[in-house]
């Protein structure tokens, strides 16, 4: 795998060419795909990320339900959601500047300590029966701010743990872990809320963030490969925006991510609508649907780790695949087709998410990576926050099947438009080869 270029002296000198993206010159073995796990610091980090992502989603679901229990006011539930996600939109770019300026390990440690204390206090209040709604909203805001500051440093810190040679595999493992947590957390929290109440989901999240504090503290500092920190200067956010816009691999990836995150990544809403309205399977069906998506996501992670190259056309293709399978899930047909489509949704979602994140990070100069990653996180988290409201309204008004169709159709449309733009700009065409089924459809230069 090729090495990343050294950081330039000034922002205007950052290279903007998309190629060459670091690639394997042959299909990697399983051992090479998981080579990042040989690094002690990364093993600690990945375990903490898995627990933290799952616990974080458990707490988000529990907080929303808790506000509804305390007030019965759906508008306050919407406020709780906004307080958890809005800081990412408001502070994300500034958090990227901090990531490029401060030691990322200590940023992570500080934000995890804040999250542990906040969630622990809220868990005690809920389990003791002394909680008030203003306390819930305040702690939701505090944890939202901590998460917004942590995000860019969490993603960019990976290169400091594993170096350039293992970076692509580590990014794939990261994306797998993060998105698996997003699938598992709401399902586990739903079961706990029904059986024991909201307090225990929040308490578990306090425990997972405490484990993250311990894991970060136990890292071997001498084994880290820190990137050069950027001095304080004016216009660093504008510099990163210009950089991202000038690189097609980043610009178009963010456009596709916006379409998929707003319309296609709100699986709890879609699956709840399917379990309640479309198929009437209740909580049992909801758990099954989440399990099928999670299983597909695990398979997608394995498939992604075996890929030899990473290009923008792959991200476009996976967005098309994800949208098409999501539309299939909304087809008014045989129930086993719906269940099979859920596995496909899990596979294609992970393939898209890992390719998009890996392409964004590997296309970015290390000296500006924190700021560019902050844009990626803002689009991902902000899109899911807005999409929850949009897709919830569609499911409520038109039913679960229509919601699935819309969730798939918009990513398909956007990916098709991006693909046409890229094809015209680079003079690409689709080649069909009936004699070689494994290369039935390929994109080649005209």
Salient structural properties:
disordered N terminus, Growth Hormone, Chain: A, 2 strands, membrane, mainly alpha, two-stranded antiparallel sheet, 446 residues
Write structural notes for this entry.
There is one protein chain. By secondary structure, the chain is mainly alpha-helical. The protein folds into two domains: 32-229, Growth Hormone, Chain: A; 231-446, Growth Hormone, Chain: A, CATH 1.20.1250. 75% of the residues lie in helices and 2% in strands. It has 15 helices and two strands. It has helices at 30-33, 40-71, 74-101, 104-128, 133-162, 167-196, 198-217, 236-246, 248-263, 267-278, 282-305, 312-329, 335-362, 369-398, 400-426, and strands at residues 428-432, 441-445. Strands 1-2 form a two-stranded antiparallel sheet. Strand 1 (428-432) and strand 2 form a beta hairpin. The longest helix has 32 residues, at 40-71. The radius of gyration is 21 Å and the shape is globular.
Task: Kindly summarize this structure in a few lines.
By secondary structure, this protein is an all-alpha fold. Helix content is 75%, strand content 2%. The chain has two domains: 32-229, Up-down Bundle (Growth Hormone, Chain: A), CATH 1.20.1250.20; 231-446, Growth Hormone, Chain: A, CATH 1.20.1250.
CATH topology of the largest domain: Growth Hormone, Chain: A
CATH class of the largest domain: Mainly Alpha
Helical fraction:
over 70%
Alpha-carbon distance between the two ends:
28 Å
Q: Indicate the mean pLDDT.
A: 80
Oligomer description: single chain
Strand content: under 5%
Largest sheet, if any?
A: 2 strands, antiparallel
Low-pLDDT stretches are 1-25
């Amino acid at each position: 795998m090729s090495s990343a270029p050294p950081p330039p002296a000034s922002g205007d000198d950052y290279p903007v060419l998309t190629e060459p993206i670091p690639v394997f010159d042959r299909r990697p073995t399983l051992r090479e795909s998981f080579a990042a796990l040989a690094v002690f610091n990364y093993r600690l980090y990945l375990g903490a990320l898995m627990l933290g992502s799952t616990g974080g989603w458990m707490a988000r679901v529990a907080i929303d339900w808790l506000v509804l229990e305390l007030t019965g006011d759906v508008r306050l539930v919407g406020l709780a959601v906004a307080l958890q996600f809005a800081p990412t939109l408001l502070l994300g770019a500034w958090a990227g500047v901090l990531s490029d300026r401060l030691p990322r390990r200590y940023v992570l440690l500080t934000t995890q300590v804040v999250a542990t204390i906040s969630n622990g206090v809220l868990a005690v209040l809920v389990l003791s029966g002394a909680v008030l709604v203003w306390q819930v909203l305040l702690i939701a805001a505090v944890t939202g701010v901590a998460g917004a500051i942590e995000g860019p440093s969490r993603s960019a810190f990976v290169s400091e743990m594993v170096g350039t040679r293992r970076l692509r595999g580590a990014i794939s493992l990261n994306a797998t872990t993060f998105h698996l947590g997003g699938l598992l957390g709401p399902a586990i929290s739903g079961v706990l809320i029904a059986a024991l109440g909201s307090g225990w989901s929040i308490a578990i999240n306090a425990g997972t963030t405490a484990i993250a504090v311990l894991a970060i503290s136990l890292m071997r500092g001498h084994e880290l490969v820190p990137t050069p920190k950027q001095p304080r200067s004016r216009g660093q956010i504008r510099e990163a925006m210009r950089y991202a816009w000038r690189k097609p691999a980043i610009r178009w990836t963010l456009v596709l991510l916006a379409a998929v995150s707003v319309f296609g990544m709100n699986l709890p809403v879609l699956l709840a609508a399917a379990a309640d309205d479309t198929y009437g399977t209740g909580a049992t069906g909801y758990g099954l649907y989440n399990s099928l998506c999670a299983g597909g996501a695990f398979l997608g992670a394995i498939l992604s780790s075996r890929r030899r190259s990473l290009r923008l056309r792959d991200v476009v293709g996976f967005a098309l695949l994800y949208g098409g399978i999501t539309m299939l899930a909304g087809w008014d047909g045989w129930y086993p087709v719906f269940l099979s489509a859920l596995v496909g949704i899990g596979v294609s979602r992970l393939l898209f998410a890992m390719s998009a994140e890996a392409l964004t990070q590997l296309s970015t100069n290390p000296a500006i990576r924190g700021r560019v990653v902050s844009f990626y996180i803002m689009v991902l988290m902000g899109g899911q926050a807005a999409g929850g409201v949009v897709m919830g309204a569609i499911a409520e008004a038109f039913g679960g099947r229509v919601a699935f169709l819309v969730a798939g159709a918009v990513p398909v449309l956007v990916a098709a438009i991006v693909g046409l733009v890229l094809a015209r700009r680079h003079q690409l065409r689709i080649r069909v080869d009936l004699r070689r089924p494994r290369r039935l459809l390929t994109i080649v230069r005209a």
